[in-house]
Write a structure and sequence with these properties.
- The protein contains 16 helices and 16 strands.
- It is of the alpha+beta class and about 450 residues long.
- The chain folds into two domains: about 260 residues, BirA Bifunctional Protein, domain 2 (2-Layer Sandwich); about 90 residues, Rossmann fold, CATH 3.40.50.
- The strands form three sheets. It has an eight-stranded mixed beta sheet, sandwiched between helices. The protein has a five-stranded mixed beta sheet with strand order 13-12-14-15-16, with helices on both faces. The chain has a three-stranded antiparallel beta sheet with strand order 2-4-3.
- Helix 2 runs antiparallel to helix 6 and helix 6 runs parallel beside helix 10.
């Protein structure tokens, strides 16, 4: 039996830990994320995509109407609450609906204009935490709005693949499908329902519930028995209308022109109701069952489902956690880890003020510099302890200020790799370091 004291201890311990399914991105990893983000941002710019920053929460109806009432996201995974004004709001589970809402609200696609936009940031879904999947997770997301032609679909696939190519990812596979449109999907839906109804005894409880509401989602089930049934299900290719069939043929032809290897997957439907025509994923062999590093496709009717005018769109999203995980497993480079270039050390107490001034000047010159800031309990550290700190943080150079340096208006600059040191005029320290190619960031 728990006592009041033990419950209190458990409560205190819980307050000192992140909630289940979320994690801190600490310095050991955050620099890798910064590298992925910088490569992503440059690639987006090269493809003509402009960055936007979206709200972290939206009106709940945006997701229930846009993403779909019958999706797992809306039914089981959204973090929804009522604010003090009595409004139902939801932490964003994905970015596409918010991106389309922003484009409509601010008239980004009026007068037949198109917009190519991207964003990044945290998303939230209450789902079972597992490798590379968290309840607060980070995505980068690109959307091409206002263009209905297959060239835009091919560009989106090429954009996501180019980001991964620049990051050095290997063993990736593009899988593609068409999920039709409101004209042809009802016919396919009927064929699918008839097929799965004949196989009811082999379906899991979740898929039996999906059969009436969203039978395409049965194709995506990972339960082995359901998966075996889905493998033999009718393919949508035979039920596409002329428009969707022609669109998909052009997408495949465009991928072939760009020499993109891909394979067709009749079971690829994605987990969101707003998809029409093209759906695709990029898979990695490094992640096991949860192997998608990127997914997207076309959503021509999303804007209308949230109360806006017709606005065709196509886009994709990729998770930072999974991308970094694959890069680590493949031994990819994240560039040079940022480190302090210069440690400024005081030989005695009289030099402390000069050290503070020099450190500030170096930082203003764009040179990363560190100093002993002292400690409330132990006070300033000795010169020997400061030099140990310089080694510990991996500083390339140490600038030493003592009585002799103060008298001459100079600084002793030591190369921490070679041990060579020279007396340099205080105002020339930054230039000296640059001339000797000490910039390592």
């Amino acid at each position: 039996m728990q006592t009041a004291d033990s419950k209190t201890i458990e409560t205190i311990e819980a307050q000192n830990k992140a909630p289940r399914g979320i994690r801190d991105i600490l310095p050991e990893e955050s620099w890798k994320w910064a590298y992925v983000l910088s490569v992503t941002a440059q690639t987006m710019a090269d493809f003509g995509y402009s960055e936007v920053y979206l709200p972290i929460f939206e009106h709940t109806e945006l997701f229930s109407r846009g993403v779909g009432d019958a999706t797992d996201i809306v039914e089981k995974e959204m973090y929804t609450f009522v604010d003090r004004g009595g409004r139902s709001v939801t932490l964003r589970p994905e970015a596409t609906a918010g991106m389309v809402r922003a484009a409509l609200e601010h008239g980004l696609c009026e007068q037949n204009m198109s917009s190519k936009l991207w964003c990044w940031g945290p998303m939230f879904r209450y789902e079972r935490p597992q490798k590379g999947r968290y309840r607060q997770f980070y995505q980068f997301d690109a959307e091409c709005l206002g263009l209905a032609g297959p060239v835009a679909d091919v560009e989106i696939i090429a954009l996501s693949a180019e980001i991964f190519r620049r990051l050095g990812l290997r063993n990736l596979e593009v899988v593609a499908n068409s999920v039709g449109c409101p004209k042809c999907r009802p016919q396919y839906r009927k064929v699918l329902v008839d097929y799965f109804t004949s196989k009811k005894s082999s379906l899991c409880e979740t898929c039996l519930g999906r059969l009436d509401r969203n039978p395409l989602r049965v194709l995506d089930c990972k339960v082995p028995e359901c998966s075996a049934v889905a493998d033999s299900a009718p393919a949508i290719y035979e039920h596409l209308c002329d428009e969707c069939a022609a669109h998909f043929e052009e997408v495949k032809a465009g991928l072939a022109r760009l020499n993109f290897p891909y394979k067709l997957d009749k079971r690829l439907v994605r987990g969101l109701d707003y998809y029409t025509k093209t759906a695709y994923e990029i898979l990695s062999g490094e992640l096991g069952a949860q192997n998608a590093v990127c997914g997207g496709g076309r959503y021509d009717n999303l804007a209308e489902s949230i109360g806006g005018p017709h606005l065709p769109g196509v886009g994709f999203a990729a998770g930072f956690d999974r991308v970094v995980l694959v890069m680590e497993q493949q031994g990819n480079s994240f560039g040079e880890r940022p480190r302090t270039e210069v440690y400024v050390a005081a030989q005695d107490e009289a030099a402390r003020g000069a050290v503070q001034i020099l450190t500030h000047k170096l930082r203003r010159e764009g040179i990363s510099a560190e100093q002993d800031a002292g400690d409330a309990l132990r006070g300033a550290r000795s010169f020997k302890a400061q030099m140990k700190s310089a080694n510990k943080i991996g500083a390339a150079w140490t600038c030493i200020v003592g009585a002799d340096e103060l008298a001459k208006g100079s600084v002793t600059v030591k190369n921490m790799t070679t041990g060579e040191q020279n007396l340099v005029a205080e105002e020339e320290v930054a230039n000296y370091i640059r001339r000797h190619e000490a910039r390592l960031i």
